[in-house]
Amino acid sequence: EIIGSVKGPLEGKKVVVTAGPTREHIDPVRFISNPSSGKMGIAMAKAAQSLGADVTLIHGPLSVEKPDDMHSVSITSTADLFEAVKEYSDADVIIMAAAVSDFTPAETFTHKVKKDDAGDAILLKRTQDILAWLGENKKEGQVLIGFAMETENLVENATSKLKKKNADYIIANALTEEDAGFATDTNRVLLLSKDGEQQFEGTKTDIAIEVLNTIFR
Ligand code: CTP
Ligand code: CA
């Protein structure tokens, strides 16, 4: 007798994962960015897929190979990322693992700026907080998962992001740890929700699976 295939907890669910850094161009050859590799986001995307989800990976410039068996959308700036996320904002689950730039140059030049003409300051403006926008526009039953990068007061700062952004979960990274954070293969995170907190450590791959199993089991 055929019993049927084993179904994962995310079977039939649309999951959007953002990963990697954004780049905010000053001119065609210069930009503001951060050291995000995309590893944690890709681990989350693969984990969601292995639990049965229909995954869309929206990613900035990655330092690692992206999965070739997954629908993906490539972006550069925070503004691009916001546009792409809005297009997929009806997803059942959205995981904001991208290291989104908080600032972008007030003016972007289409030609390379000559250093003698540049002056000694670059005027910046704030970018859209995409997770906060998703929190304000949350769909019925949608699950919003954000990350938090902190170098101090991890629990306090990450809890405040959970509330301020109306996220259901925040995965908090302590950047002070040697084996955790940007571009490492391992990580140590705290999963925060309104129900409390739980710690996970190990490879980013293992953490991604364990965190999603904890949330969706
Ligand atoms: N995030 C976002 N849009 C931004 C900035 C951040 O969607 N413009 C998301 C990140 O993808 C992450 C969460 O918000 O899921 C927290 O990002 P983090 O940089 O830790 O917090 P911020 O709210 O930007 O605050 P700060 O950098 O000042 O600590
Ligand atoms: Ca930030």
From TrEMBL:
Gene Ontology MF annotations: FMN binding; metal ion binding; phosphopantothenate--cysteine ligase activity; phosphopantothenoylcysteine decarboxylase activity
**BP-aspect Gene Ontology terms:** coenzyme A biosynthetic process; pantothenate catabolic process
Question: What sequence ranges are listed for the domain DNA/pantothenate metabolism flavoprotein C-terminal?
Answer: 10-215
Q: What does it catalyze?
A: N-[(R)-4-phosphopantothenoyl]-L-cysteine + H(+) = (R)-4'-phosphopantetheine + CO2; (R)-4'-phosphopantothenate + L-cysteine + CTP = N-[(R)-4-phosphopantothenoyl]-L-cysteine + CMP + diphosphate + H(+)
Region named Phosphopantothenate--cysteine ligase: 15-217
List residues binding CTP: 102, 112, 147, 161, 165
Cofactor remark:
Binds 1 FMN per subunit.
What Enzyme Commission number does this protein have? Answer: 4.1.1.36, 6.3.2.5
What cofactor does this chain's UniProt record say it requires? Answer: FMN; Mg(2+)
What keywords does the record list, in alphabetical order?
Decarboxylase, Flavoprotein, FMN, Ligase, Lyase, Magnesium, Metal-binding, Multifunctional enzyme
Keyword hit for Metal-binding = yes
**Pathway listed for it?**
Cofactor biosynthesis; coenzyme A biosynthesis; CoA from (R)-pantothenate: step 3/5; Cofactor biosynthesis; coenzyme A biosynthesis; CoA from (R)-pantothenate: step 2/5
- Keyword Lyase in record: yes
Question: Among the entry's GO cellular component annotations, what is one?
Answer: phosphopantothenoylcysteine decarboxylase complex
Q: What does this protein do?
A: Catalyzes two steps in the biosynthesis of coenzyme A. In the first step cysteine is conjugated to 4'-phosphopantothenate to form 4-phosphopantothenoylcysteine, in the latter compound is decarboxylated to form 4'-phosphopantotheine. Catalyzes two sequential steps in the biosynthesis of coenzyme A. In the first step cysteine is conjugated to 4'-phosphopantothenate to form 4-phosphopantothenoylcysteine. In the second step the latter compound is decarboxylated to form 4'-phosphopantotheine.
So what family is this one in? In the C-terminal section; belongs to the PPC synthetase family.
Q: What is this protein called?
A: Coenzyme A biosynthesis bifunctional protein CoaBC
Organism, scientific name? Gracilimonas mengyeensis
State start and end of the fragment within the whole protein.
179 to 395 of 395
